[in-house]
């Protein structure tokens, strides 16, 4: 029996061998489809994240990780949503509306003391990133007495810093001054410009604007480099246990974002302009140049500063007296990034 020839290629067609080759080809195709499906499943890992600020600061690494594509490269579909104030971002985490949030040491300590097993798994800014801004009626610490301070909501980083700062100046924040809960940093600056407040704590973006308005810095906490758990990624112990790989990839993306902030000024500013509530390019650039020196190259959760914060918070939250502040810190992910060589690969 003559073998049929492949009319297109001109070689004999052997049915048995052809079927075997075809089977192997099908298996390869199926394997590729499986791998593609596995990759798609990995990319489908979804995370909801709440961030707490609209100024250049602790929320900025999230904006970069999202818009520069670092979350996506790590196989994560991260939705970020603004929820004003760290106590409120913490509430979204506790309620299960977010899986990882951008929050602060004070909010984390209050939540942990209340029985919520939250942990800080990464830190972006580990010093006080604030300045005590005053109007022209204040020239010294003594002049603060009797004046009105524009404050954030209780339990926020700004509220904690202004109280610690006033006490360091010999001013009782509850008796010597009137602290009014105005809102976030842009709102507090608006309150000062409207004449309803005499002082506030501000970060770099609002500092630039404040100086343009004729206000001055009474205390520079940034220069003092006071250890403070300002901004970081916070999740729950349960999520760490159930979704450890997701948390690790999330922190990898944030680490890449921090490196991007340090090395790509123009790209960072383009992203920041889409989120920060201030659009003057000149002032934003100046503020960014000042702020980016605060970002940690390694996103290690701060181990210092918590005792200082807990001592202040304990004045209004007795559960934080003699509290083990180390219970809120989880270093395992950053240690893995160091040991795996991931951090060195960014240099």
List keywords for this structure.
16 helices, three-stranded antiparallel beta sheet, disordered N terminus, D-Maltodextrin-Binding Protein, domain 2, five-stranded mixed beta sheet
Structural class designation:
alpha/beta
CATH superfamily of the largest domain: Periplasmic binding protein-like II
Series of secondary-structure elements, N-terminal to C-terminal: HEHHEHEHEEEHEHEHEHEHHHHHHH
> What fraction, in percent, of the residue positions are helical?
40-55%
Net shape:
globular
Mean of pLDDT: 87
**So, CATH architecture of the largest domain?**
3-Layer(aba) Sandwich
Can you tell me the CATH topology of the largest domain?
Answer: D-Maltodextrin-Binding Protein, domain 2
CATH class of the largest domain: Alpha Beta
> Main sheet?
5 strands, mixed
Number of strands: 10
Q: What is the terminal separation in angstroms? A: 68 Å
Structural commentary:
There is one protein chain. By secondary structure, the protein is α/β, with parallel strands linked by helices. The chain has 2 domains: 42-126 and 228-345, Periplasmic binding protein-like II (D-Maltodextrin-Binding Protein, domain 2, 3-Layer(aba) Sandwich), CATH 3.40.190.10; 131-224, Periplasmic binding protein-like II (D-Maltodextrin-Binding Protein, domain 2), CATH 3.40.190. The chain is built from 16 helices and 10 strands. The chain has helices at residues 15-43, 60-67, 70-73, 86-94, 105-113, 157-168, 185-193, 204-212, 221-224, 237-242, 244-263, 265-272, 281-291, 306-313, 332-340, 342-345; strands at residues 45-51, 76-82, 100-103, 118-127, 131-134, 148-151, 178-181, 199-202, 216-220, 227-236. Helix 2 (60-67) crosses helix 11 (244-263), helix 5 (105-113) packs across helix 14 (306-313) and helix 8 packs across helix 13. The longest helix has 29 residues, at 15-43. It is globular and about 55 Å long.
């Amino acid at each position: 029996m003559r073998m049929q020839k492949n009319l297109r290629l001109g070689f004999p067609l052997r049915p048995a061998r052809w079927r075997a080759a075809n089977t192997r080809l099908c298996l390869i195709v199926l394997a590729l489809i499986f791998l593609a499906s596995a990759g798609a499943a990995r990319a489908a890992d979804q995370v909801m994240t709440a961030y707490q600020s609209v100024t250049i600061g602790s929320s900025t690494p999230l904006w970069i990780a999202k818009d520069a594509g670092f979350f996506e490269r790590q196989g994560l579909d991260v939705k970020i949503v603004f929820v004003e104030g760290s106590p409120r971002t913490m509430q979204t985490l506790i309620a299960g509306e977010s899986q990882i949030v951008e929050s602060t040491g004070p909010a984390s300590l209050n939540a942990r003391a209340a029985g919520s097993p939250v942990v800080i798994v990464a830190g972006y800014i580990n010093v006080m990133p604030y300045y005590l801004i005053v109007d022209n009626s204040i020239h010294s610490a003594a002049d603060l007495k009797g004046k009105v301070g524009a404050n954030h909501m209780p339990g926020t980083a700004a509220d904690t810093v202004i109280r610690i700062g006033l006490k360091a100046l010999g001013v009782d924040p509850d008796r010597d001054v009137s602290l009014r809960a105005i809102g976030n940093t842009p709102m507090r600056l608006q309150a000062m410009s409207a004449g309803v407040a005499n002082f506030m704590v501000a970060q770099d973006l609002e500092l630039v604007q404040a100086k343009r308005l004729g206000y001055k810095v009474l205390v520079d906490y940034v220069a003092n480099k006071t250890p403070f758990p300002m901004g970081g990624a916070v999740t729950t112990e349960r999520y760490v246990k159930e979704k450890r790989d997701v948390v690790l990839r999330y922190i990898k993306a944030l680490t890449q974002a921090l490196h991007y902030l340090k090395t790509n000024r123009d790209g960072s500013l383009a992203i920041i302009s889409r989120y920060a509530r201030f659009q003057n390019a000149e002032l934003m650039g100046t503020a960014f140049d000042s702020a980016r020196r605060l970002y940690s190259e390694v996103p290690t959760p701060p181990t210092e500063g918590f005792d200082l914060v807990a001592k202040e918070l304990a004045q209004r939250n007795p559960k934080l007296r003699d509290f083990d502040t180390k219970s809120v810190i989880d270093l395992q992910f950053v240690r893995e990034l160091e040991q795996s060589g991931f951090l060195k690969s960014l240099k």
